Amino acid sequence: MTEVSSLTGRLLVATPALADPNFDRAVVLLLDHDEEGSLGVVLNRPTPVGVGDILASWASLAGEPGVVFQGGPVSLDSALGVAVVPGEAHETGATALTQGAAVPGSARRPGRGEPIGWRRVHGAIGLVDLEAPPELLAAELGSLRIFAGYSGWGPGQLEDELVEGAWYVVESEPGDVSSPAPQQLWRAVLRRQRNELAMVATYPDDPSLN
Fold it and tell me: pTM for this one?
């Protein structure tokens, strides 16, 4: 079996050729990726539901827009939290919170000096334990997003999609988690690339109009 190089903490940016409506122009933050599969959350799918409507105790810590995001088509009745803790070695990172349902593949060995209730995924990004008292993290978090559901791939499935050209893989930045304009994130992430991907950002929403 071919060894899988972990893409944990990277972004999957949907290519214009990706036909799945669940991931049209999606920007996915990978929270876990190994030979057993992959798990991530879509960063640019805000819903009309306010965080306070489902997790009132966390609403004051959620960044603008203060709504729940649809993390993907799997387990839409479960909530995950992804939070950035400033000053974490200037690395990108992601944290996920789970409530009421176990999220496969999210276990991480705790690091030293991490805030209680926050588990590093990559760099400054980590998973938040949504069942922990919010006041434990209030002074530590730089930003928090709440996601309903997540995106999952079985063993080798994501690798197949990469070979098929469904995704661009790029580095994440902590600000991607808390973008105040999530609907613009697809173009913004592509535009900052120092290669031909920057040109893809100009791709029209409707190719027939080009």
Answer: 0.84
